[in-house]
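Dear support,

I submitted the protein below through the web form. The confirmation email said the job was done, but the results page showed an empty box. After a refresh the structure appeared. I'm attaching both so you can tell me whether what I see now is the final result or a partial one.
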Amino acid sequence: MKPTEFVKVNTQFWGEHLKGVSDHLPTSHRTELPGPLLYPRMMVLTETPDWNILELVGVSREYRSLEVRRQKAAGIDEYFGTSAGAGAVVALPDESVVKDATIASERGKNALSDWFPATQSLLGNEMVGPSDKLLEFAPGNYAVLGRVLLAQSSGLAVRLRWNFFTIAIHRSEPADRYREFLQRLVNSSEHLDPIGTFAVPRGESEQILKGDPYASTYLHDLQKLTTGEFLNRHEEILLSAFDATSLIREPALESADGTITPDFILERSDGTHVVGDLALPLLETVGGKKRRRSLDLRDGATRLAQYQQYFATAENQAFAKTKYGVEITDPRTLLVVASHEAPTDFDQAAETASSLEVVDYDTILRLHLAAKSPSSSTPNDSGPTSIAVMP
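What the results page shows now:
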């Protein structure tokens, strides 16, 4: 299938499917649904030499026509941020579907347990292994991930990503057969749990959805916000996602070598700290001119390594305590990235900042909802294995 055909088929199919769901279920079956349905905001279409990849990203309380983003990657392993080779945690056979599950390295699973308590309601069926490589795409035509939490590691570094919906299709597959597969996929799902959506329980999480970050147009609004404005709007989200009690915005950390300014410091309920930066397209002023922030994974890791080095000395620790009232000795360092960016440089970034954590924006929104929900409302137990094969 040519890339242009891939774009055409997906644009038409997912537009019709998601609009049909949003027009029908919330009105005709409102009392039967466990709570409000959430929809993606964007359709990311990635071309590799052997595979075409569709990913639906975004967490929105309403459906509107999906924004389309096209990009290229060197290969499917690069797209998922893993190096080629054997020994993956999960091997995906032809026409495999993984739904409501967690796929993690052992290091990644430990990070979920120790650092992200909100993920416990998202775990579903857990597939954990010693390899840093999470996925192996066996020879075949299709692989599907739906509402899958990926916890990848490289050395001590961890990347956490909640995957809303992804299809990898071999490029040899013709367009008509791909559309037939999509229809079979949609038809195989439960009527009240349609593909490409998820529900949250009624209650506090339902009120949260009224906030700006869950609007369908919010990806564009991000580009109008400064770092300070973003943190003001997302304070509650960051606190709950990271089990934190306080947020320090853009602290100026002075030392004999100069001043560094991370975007934020989070103090967690257990007394530990997270020092982080936002690799998001926010508005910033450089040299008197306003521009969109551009911070890739490698550059972000370099900045996080500076924060690790800063807090390694007693003098700097004392400065932070005096100025900001926090006792920081061995902080976690975090980079918040855009959800549509593939983690192509994760291994290299991990060599720069040893305790690097990478979490994308959508995953933080999802963690916030999970922290405020009494239980997972979406089915999360599909039996002894989470890998199914399409009928």
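Response: this is the final, complete result; the empty box was a page-load delay. Residues 2 and 34 are 40 Å apart (CA to CA).
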